[in-house]
Amino acid sequence: MNKTLLLFLSTILLVACSAKESKQEVEVQQLQKILTQQSIQLLDVRTPQETANGIIKTAQIADFKQGEVVEKATAIFKKDSPLYVYCYSGGRSSKAAEQLTAAGFTKVYNVIGGIKAWQAAGFPLQPTGKMKPIDPAEVTAFKKSLEGEKIQAVNFYATWCATCKKNKPLLNEIAPAYQNITLRNIDIDQANSVYQYLKLQAVPVLIIYKNGQEINRLNGALSAEAIKEAFAAAA
């Protein structure tokens, strides 16, 4: 093999391996222990709607969906010090960690399971002070819309949510086969008070109501089988 080509391939491999090694992962239990022992660089890459419900103490915020992670992190943090990144469940923070590594951060830790795992472990959140006041009229209108004997499947989604973009068309396709179930799609950015009232932590969330009462709740990505099973059980 040509020596120049061999050297080029070796360099590419070395860079790739270095990048891979610089992005690491940490469990929420480890993160909590580290936080009690020292001050660290911590970044929350969730949306304003999500962070309004609370953040991990000392975390800075940069919305991954708005593409502001690298810019904000570069302005706030030191690139040669460990940086811990989290989101709701670990997906966005993993991608953010890759972006930060490519931008020159030498040691980036993705928090496995994100805020979902953090809360499941019983660890507290710190209020951000940015939560919008709940509009009682919006909540009242939502409750009234659930009245009656008809079964309603309410799909809470956001236009910026990748998983929502997969769930929504699937729900729209399946729902017509269940004539006694009404499917409603609600954009949380247009119904923030309802989002807070229901204490939703992230989207997508499918909530099924019967006679105005919640009878089932499904979070995250849904398969056709899971949707059909939930609809059949409600019917």
Automatic annotation (TrEMBL):
Coiled coil: none
Domain annotation Rhodanese: ranges: 26-124
Source organism superkingdom: Bacteria
UniProt-listed InterPro entries: GlpE_sulfurtransferase (IPR050229), Rhodanese-like_dom (IPR001763), Rhodanese-like_dom_sf (IPR036873), Thioredoxin-like_sf (IPR036249), Thioredoxin_domain (IPR013766)
Transmembrane segments: none
Key words of the record: Plasmid
Name assigned to this protein: Thioredoxin
Organism: Persicobacter psychrovividus
Lineage: Bacteria, Pseudomonadati, Bacteroidota, Cytophagia, Cytophagales
